[in-house]
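user: Please review this fold.
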Amino acid sequence: MASPEAPSSDKTQIIEDEKTMDNTGKLLAVFVVVANAIAVVALILAFVGVARNGTNQYYINSSGVESGSGGDSDGVVINSNDDKIWMLQIGHFGSNTQYLDEASGTIRGYDVDVVNSVCQLAGKNCALVWDLYENCWDSQAGQRARGGDGLMGDWYDACIGWYHTLDRARTYSFSSPIEKGLKPVFFVRRGTSSFSFPNFGGLKIGFLDGWWIDEHCLNRYSVNGLDITDVNQVIHYQTEELAITAINAGEVDVLFMPNVAFLVQHPDLRLAHEPPTDMCASGGPGVMTRKNQFELLTWFNAAFERLVSTSQYQDICDNLSEDHGGQPGPSAEEVCVA
């Protein structure tokens, strides 16, 4: 086979000229990229400088979209010594501890005030993420409760306002309580007397879905006539209002729920029994997180302990009624830990 023809000197010169032009273009492109990178870094540094001065606040919903930027005190203040953003889930239970403020479109309440202050004292970037409670802890009638998709799936780092229970402790770790705990009690429809603790044979029992006061806790009281696998006897409701509607309609005979003022004082309900011992929780609500979140629990507990000893925490408690008085819920004496 014949050897390839050697390139002529003219062709070589053309190729060399093209290489020179190509290198010049590459240098120009590199210069543009570097200039753009410097501009981006400058913008980032400017943002971080503002954030660390505590002047930027924001609220992030479950889809990750920022809103409420600026002076709105309902967002968690960014005031950090590092760049990590701690994503903290919160729901809207509907009491003065966590509720949806329709005017601002944000979740407000005692828990929000505490988290704001803790993150500021700890110097951490924190963002409150609204999501459904069952994405933190999922409880289906007739089944064992389990970790929710959101917290187990690392959608956020922790959930705010959750009780430490035996069932949850198998899956999650907990901070120190940030609230005093509520007690489990039994309600019946006012005007009825068909319930006599601890006998539940033939009775339908209503629970709040995903709450710490559930059928597994009730079973620890050595009651009679309870089948926790029977979905016709054990019935879950998403809200207190739905549970009250159900008991008024005769769908359930008794409700096993916390002694929140909204329920205790409700005109359609009668507090039928209050167990002398709490078999449901080992402490009040706090931060619930995955068992690998040692860093979060360390800084949160330290900052909360510090907060409780300050006048800032006293102001949160003293102003609970004024700031969130439009919502039902516990008094400052019932919720504040100091």
Residues 1-35, 38-79 have pLDDT under 50 and may be disordered. The chain has eleven helices and 17 strands. The longest helix spans residues 9-52.
